[in-house]
Write a structure and sequence with these properties.
With 285 residues, the chain is α/β, with parallel strands linked by helices. The chain is built from 11 helices and 13 strands. It has helices at 44-51, 72-75, 94-104, 110-118, 133-145, 163-176, 191-194, 215-221, 232-237, 259-263, 273-282; strands at 4-15, 18-29, 33-37, 58-63, 79-82, 151-155, 183-187, 200-205, 208-214, 222-227, 242-246, 249-255, 266-270. The strands form 3 sheets. The chain has a 6-stranded mixed β-sheet with strand order 5-6-7-3-8-9, with helices on both faces. The chain has a 4-stranded antiparallel β-sheet with strand order 11-12-10-13.
């Protein structure tokens, strides 16, 4: 059995003259939480659609050992996809939602879903349209965590929810769903809220992967320097990928330059994922 849940080689997808995916290759190991981050139109959704067998593509792609286009029925027994946790059939009662999922998904554990719901204040006899956003999140979480899926794909999962429910969603995933045999893929624009749970990150731009790294390595690869007065030329000679100013002093972001070398030119600091993303997408290198 492969150690990777997804293996993509030379993956491409065109819409007329537009290349949504441009010869993309990547691997996702089992038991990781991977953030796929990019601007609107970068290719994130096209990539996910290929992985889920929802879109044709050129190249070679294997998900849990299956060809998504030819073996989608087998693939979806081990995959759970959620585009928006606030979207459930509004005309159904909560109990009806549980009944429905049990009837269509072979790996749904009703007892596990009910155990989760019984620890909330969600009324089972109330229609989804009458639930608060927080309760809707809890129902969706109950469904997701009761499905024994090896791969969970979340496309902007907390869109439109306030910060309390967004944090609850991710915390529940970590505590009650994720383990070393499951893999989670998350696409989101709310980078700061997921960076603490990600093990790996992929940046995508113009249909191409521009960065693929483990989170723990990023702080060593990307460093910001507040340049000490008089060291501006030396700092420029090291090839920053992005420059700015802070309190009248020059700041530079570097990729692949040692912290020891930069410490000689001023003060260095750790960059957050959002800063790394902006520098990578708008920088010079």
């Amino acid at each position: 059995m492969s150690e990777y849940v997804i293996e993509a080689n030379n993956l491409s997808k065109t819409f007329g003259d537009f290349k949504a995916l441009d010869n993309v290759s990547f691997k996702m190991p089992i038991g990781r939480i991977v953030g796929v981050i990019g601007e609107n139109g970068a290719g994130k959704t096209t990539m996910l659609n290929a992985v889920l067998g929802l879109s044709s593509y050129e190249g070679d792609l294997r998900v849990n050992g299956h060809d998504p286009m030819k073996e989608r029925n087998k693939l979806m027994q081990d995959v759970c996809f959620i585009a928006d946790v606030a979207t459930l059939p509004k005309w159904m009662k909560v109990s009806d939602v549980i009944d429905y999922v049990e009837s269509v998904h072979p790996r749904f554990n009703r007892a596990k879903a009910m155990d989760f719901l019984n620890r909330t204040s969600v009324p089972l006899n109330r229609k989804v349209k009458a639930l608060s956003k927080g309760m809707t999140v809890q129902v969706h979480l109950a469904v997701v965590m009761a499905i024994d899926a090896k791969l969970l794909v979340l496309d902007e999962p907390t869109l439109g929810l306030d910060i309390i429910f967004r944090k609850q969603f991710y915390q529940s995933l970590l505590e009650e769903y994720f383990d070393e045999e499951r893999t989670i893929i998350i696409t989101t624009h709310q980078v700061e809220e997921v960076e603490h749970i990600l093990s790996d990150v992929i940046f995508i731009k113009g249909g191409k992967i521009v960065l693929e790294e483990e989170m723990e390595d990023l702080t060593q690869i990307f460093i910001e320097l507040m340049v000490a007065p008089g060291n501006e030329e030396k700092a420029q000679a090291l090839g920053p990928i992005r420059k700015g100013a802070n309190f009248g002093r020059t700041t530079c972001i570097y990729k692949g330059v040692s912290r020891e070398e930069l410490n000689a030119l001023g003060e260095t600091r750790r960059l957050g994922l959002a800063d790394i993303f902006v520098a990578t997408m708008t920088g010079e290198g």
